[in-house]
Design goal:
By secondary structure, the protein is an all-alpha fold. Helices cover 80% and strands 0% of the residues. The chain has two domains: 136 residues, no CATH class; 43 residues.
């Protein structure tokens, strides 16, 4: 019962402070589930994020469902997902009422304009942590490149280039990367 309460409170905090959507919530989710409660390792967290991106729905909701399931089964999944959604539901209802009433005020434009750089910073922080983990095996800024995976760098560069310049659906890139990794692993390559 105590773990369900911890899940609820953790994901209420994540839902309350994750302005900017799911990617902006990644550092908050990581802090709660990896650093604070140690429910997941960094590698498990990266796996949860990967799976959350491949399944339909918002990444923060998917992550909450996966983490809750791992920690406390189906009840944990339900509690974590509800905790993640609850603050947003309340905040959106309040903001919708306020925005409808005060949308013509200049201060609203200023507030929205000021939030954008902070959201971009949160997304960049989560993206860099996942990039370092994928390429170097550690989520922190590298001090040495001795753990750099050449295979991961090539796969990253190929996926990035194809996504950016060929406009191929990212689902095909994810599936292709998985297939290439399995084949390389079966061939005995160092991954």
């Amino acid at each position: 019962m105590m773990v369900l309460l911890q899940l609820l409170l953790s994901f209420v905090q994540i839902g309350l402070y994750s302005f900017g959507g799911g990617y902006a919530a990644l550092p908050l989710i990581q802090y709660q589930v990896v650093d604070l409660h140690k429910w997941l390792t960094v590698q498990e967290f990266a796996d949860v994020i990967t799976i959350s991106q491949m399944t339909p729905g918002p990444i923060a909701i998917n992550a909450a469902s996966f983490v809750g399931r791992k920690v406390a089964g189906l009840p944990g999944s339900i509690v974590a997902t509800f905790g993640n959604v609850l603050p947003s539901l309340i905040i959106v209802l309040i903001l919708a009422a306020l925005f409808a009433r005060y949308r013509s005020l200049k201060v609203m434009d200023g507030i929205l304009y000021g939030l954008r750089p902070a959201v971009v910073g949160l997304i960049a922080s989560a993206g860099l942590a996942i990039l370092f983990l994928a390429l170097l095996g550690d989520q922190n800024f590298p001090t040495t490149l001795e753990t750099l995976s050449l295979f991961a760098v090539i796969l990253f560069a190929f996926g990035f280039t194809i996504t950016k310049f060929k406009k191929i659906n990212p689902i095909f890139i994810i599936i292709g990367s998985g297939v290439v990794t399995v084949l390389a692993s079966l061939a005995g390559m160092k991954i």
